[in-house]
Amino acid sequence: MGCWRAAYNVGMQLSPAPDPQSRNGPTSLTDLFWTFTALALQGFGGVLAIAQRDLVEKRRWFTREEFLDEWSVAQIMPGSNMINLALMVGGRYYGLRGALSALAGMLTGPMVVLLLLAVAYSQLANNPGVAGALRGMGAVAAGLLMGAGVKLAPALKVNPLGLALCALLMVLTFVAIALLRWPLMLVIPALGVVACMAAWFALRNKEQ
After folding, report:
1. Domain-by-domain residue ranges, the chain?
2. Which ranges constitute the DSSP H helices of 2-127?
3. Which residues have C-beta within 8 Å of that of residue 29, sequence separation ≥ 6?
4. What are the pLDDT digits (tens) for 153-169?
5. Under 8 Å between Cβ of 47 and 40
6. Distance between CA 142 and CA 158 in Å, rounded?
7. Residue 191 exposed, middle or buried by CB count within 10 Å (0-12, 13-18, 19+)
8. What is the pTM of this model?
9. How many CB atoms lie within 10 A of CB 23?
10. H or E stretch including 185?
11. Radius of gyration over alpha carbons of the chain, in Å?
């Protein structure tokens, strides 16, 4: 719970709270609950692609740049990325009640489905067709994540670091994790600190 509270507090500081009645925001706690329930139930292998399409393109709760900022914070905080994002979004619009409503939406539906699947999988785990289906779903999930990354990439054009430095940091992260197999616990603090310092200097020079 402490990790979720930290994610909520950081997210609340990113931008001022919008008007709950705004056209580009959830209309009620119920809207928050069902939105994140739908996201959670669609997130086979990862929710990023679904969240980007639903929250940015469909509902327009965020611009691409805002979503990228929120997702970055959610990803570096301990715990589930999507849980962190749900807490930040719900808390921004409706405070603690909104955070709990979004959290309930993220957990309730998937928990029920997971319990049902656990019972079914215990009976079908050795079936070759089931094993093949799970491997196929993994490939689809990887494709969805790559598609979301491509859609969010244009938002880096307005990043204070500039597109070239952002690209360099992405390449370094890929090399460290995918090729050198360094643990995330080392890569995120190391490159994260470098990125934060570079952004701080860029913003300070821009103000001068």
Report:
1. 1-124, 159-208
2. 2-12, 29-42, 48-51, 64-76, 81-124
3. 94, 97, 98, 101
4. 777 777 888 888 888 98
5. yes
6. 27
7. middle
8. 0.59
9. 7
10. helix 184-207
11. 19
